[in-house]
Design a protein that fits this description.
The chain is built from seven helices and eight strands. It is of the alpha/beta class. The longest helix is centred in the middle third of the chain and has 17 residues, at 141-157. The N and C termini lie far apart (50 Å). The model has no long low-confidence stretch (mean pLDDT 95).
Length: 225
């Protein structure tokens, strides 16, 4: 069995989700409050002793059917595996917020200059067909806006490795139009639209989406002023 690490950074639902993971999987460990997405995952890798390790985001509500029991063949030990997650605002089902299975040594030595953590670890990537969780990012106005903004900036900028353009454009369309009636869906849609605009702008600096102070400034500018 591979090590499991739960990574959190001020998410409102982190404690409740952590308690559920820890109850079902007592071997799980936690990394909390490490600033920087890359740095948090490196800290997670340092806690582990298995060749591969699982990562659970703080806003992930793990499905009862998901068992953390996947075994990796020897030829796949340098591959990043990402399971699907259901978006509670717009019902999209893909790797956004999904559980990940990462190679430990490559994670320790990842390229921290790349904006997307998942694709900065290895040149090998595998999208897994099963669904691992619901990504409950819509816990308040800012969290909903931030999650949508970050994802749609990445989608619109086309800077992330291995994006399929038609698939990306359809996801952007759904992010920016669907879910008004869901909890904090209005803010998710506003964040998605702002993220798309920023991702398409000539002055986009994709690295800023990992700066949560900057993100809060953008949130305030777009929703309060």
């Amino acid at each position: 069995m591979y090590d499991i690490v739960f990574i959190s950074y001020n998410e409102p639902n982190a404690y409740a989700n952590w308690e559920l993971v820890k109850y079902r999987f007592p071997r799980a460990k936690r990394v909390d409050g490490v600033k920087g997405i890359h740095q948090a995952h490196i800290a997670a890798a340092k806690k582990c002793f298995t060749k591969m390790f699982w990562v659970v985001d703080a806003d992930a509500k793990i499905l009862d059917s998901f068992k953390f029991d996947h075994r990796v063949d020897e030829y796949d030990l340098e591959t990043v595996h990402v399971w699907r997650s259901r978006n509670p605002v717009n019902d999209l089902l893909y790797g956004y917020g999904g559980v990940k299975l990462l190679p430990r040594k490559l994670t320790l030595n990842m390229d921290t200059t790349k904006p997307d953590m998942t694709t900065s670890i290895s040149k090998y990537f595998k999208a897994m067909p099963d669904t691992s969780n619901v990504t409950a990012f819509n816990t308040n106005e800012f969290e909903a806006w931030k999650g949508a903004f970050r994802e749609c900036t990445k989608l619109a900028s086309k800077t992330i490795d291995r994006q399929n353009e038609d698939e990306t454009n359809e996801r952007l369309r759904i992010w920016t139009t669907v879910g008004q009636d869901r909890p904090f869906g209005e803010y998710a849609i506003k964040g998605a639209i702002a993220g798309r605009e920023y991702g398409l702008s000539s002055g986009v600096d994709i690295r800023l989406i990992n700066d949560f102070d900057w993100l809060y400034e953008q949130f305030s500018k777009h929703t309060m002023g």
